[in-house]
Amino acid sequence: MGRAWMWNQPVYSRWEWADPDLAQWPQDCLFAKKVWNAQYAGASAVLVVDDKDEPLITMDLLQEDDEAAKYIQNISIPSALIDKKFGEQLKKAVKDGEMVNVNLDWREAVPHPDNRVEYELWTNSNDECGPKCDMLMHFLKEFKGAAQLLEKGGYSQFTPHYITWYCPQAFVVSKQCKSQCINHGRYCAPDPEQDFSTGYDGKDVVVENLRQLCVFNVANEIKKPWIWWDYVTDFHIRCPMKEKKYNKKCAETVIKSLGLEVKKIDKCMGDPNDDSDHPLLKMEQDSQIGKGSRGDVTILPTLVVNNRQYRGKLGRKAVLKAICAGFEETTEPNVCLSDDMETNECLSDNGGCWQDKAANVTACRDTFRGRVCECPTFNGVQFKGDGYSNCERNILSGYLCNFCT
To answer: Residue 372 belongs to what H/E stretch?
Structure first.
């Protein structure tokens, strides 16, 4: 993998050393900028060391959204946040002149217990929140085809979710809460333009988010949950905020075009002026709290695969790989085995596995989860070893095979 390096001072121009694989920055540098700068310097991977003893967090902060987005779209190397204790151990090893070999392996990051993958996407109908909203909308359009194939084939169970928060009781009657919340302050969203005096209000976003939840529920009732993908992508195209079409009338036009009953969706939505809990939105708020290994959902977008939060690029190929990794071996659908999913990690240096060039035998086996080093069976003879540095012929296996033939 190359050598591990670290640095502690802010750097504003290109760095001049080779193979930097380990880095540390000051606190005032964005997570995304840390990784982008390291990539620009020639790093093949980045580890960011937490400066506090605390449970690890997602390397994304709400206040970073706009500035970080311009770096994120240009990042192509893997990165991870590690806890302070492990980071100190690595830094000490580097300072002591030890050879540090760092391997980042996400192949087992997603559990794969059976032949169906359950995944959920925490999303938003707001299309005016800047680069993050643009990225999310692009992903929804790009991923729709694969998502619908998986759902129609019974290979996946998808559930959309929407983040809301509540207005403190003391401010329920304030102008801000009235414009950003429904159901008397119980369910709120930020103002799309960050300007209370113009454009759409946060409550408009909450209402449309609720409508999209109801579209999913009604589509689920007729056993066509994949219609949700058609609705959200069509709504984004036909009812954008910038054209002043982000409203009930436009939404109902889209609903009718997809063959769903408007009355059922209206009944599901209820009255946003009611001073009571809404069962769907209440369930959404409860679901934001992490259970088991999933963790709390605090940022948008968040993708969860088999109850594990996905960490990676929000792109069709990257997300599809994560979902495909959730299937038990040999149960994956054809969409996971397509040419654009197969990267063949065995082509470069034989994937770091054992090989016998003379006999053209290799222990490298490529899968969509990544390459696996396993001693092969060749001409009926099973090789034995660790698959990485050693594979030897099983003499007994070869003898029995020759005896049988």
So the answer is: strand 370-373
